[in-house]
């Protein structure tokens, strides 16, 4: 099975999440061929040079070879590169496992939060993600809320 892990890779937080998620996937699925862009120094060593075409071609080739896309959806918004990777991969009709660990998912049944939102839309205490991107994931996949759930979902897509 080949998989592609999409997330931002420029901040320390993103790189740590990528390392933890990749390690959990590789431990649970030992024979997986997991592509993690931050591990590809040919295009992501930022002390070197790779132009936009080289980056696009390298990542698109890996997406086309992959059986499943694992896409981290955390952050203020979905990382623009991740959203593009989701869009490109969705066109292949293959499974996508979204990983959204945002704690604002908790309390969705809390009536006080719901009432506050109804009274004043600025009192939104829930997470929002672009609905087009969410829809692309849901067409052929699932959105999980933890690394553990993501690993379980990936295991279900073993090919």
TrEMBL record:
Q: InterPro entries attached here?
A: 2'-dNMP_N-hydrolase, Nucleoside_deoxyribTrfase
From what superkingdom does this record's organism come?
A: Bacteria
SUPFAM superfamilies per record:
N-(deoxy)ribosyltransferase-like (SSF52309)
Q: Name one Pfam family in it.
A: Nuc_deoxyrib_tr
In Swiss-Prot or TrEMBL terms, this protein is called Nucleoside 2-deoxyribosyltransferase
């Amino acid at each position: 099975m080949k998989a592609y892990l999409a997330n931002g890779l420029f901040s320390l937080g993103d790189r740590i999440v990528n390392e933890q998620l990749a390690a959990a996937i590789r431990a649970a699925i030992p024979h997986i061929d997991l592509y993690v862009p931050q591990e590809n120094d040919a295009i992501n060593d930022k002390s070197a040079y790779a132009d936009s075409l080289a980056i696009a071609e390298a990542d698109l080739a890996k997406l086309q070879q992959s059986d499943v896309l694992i896409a981290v959806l955390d952050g203020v918004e979905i990382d623009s590169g991740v959203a593009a990777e989701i869009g490109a991969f969705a066109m292949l009709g293959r499974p996508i496992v979204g990983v959204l660990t945002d704690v604002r998912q908790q309390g969705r049944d809390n009536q006080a939060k719901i009432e506050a939102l109804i009274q004043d839309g600025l009192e939104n205490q829930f997470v929002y993600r672009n609905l087009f991107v969410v829809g692309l994931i849901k067409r052929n996949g699932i959105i999980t809320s933890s690394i553990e759930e993501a690993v379980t979902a990936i295991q279900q897509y073993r090919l």
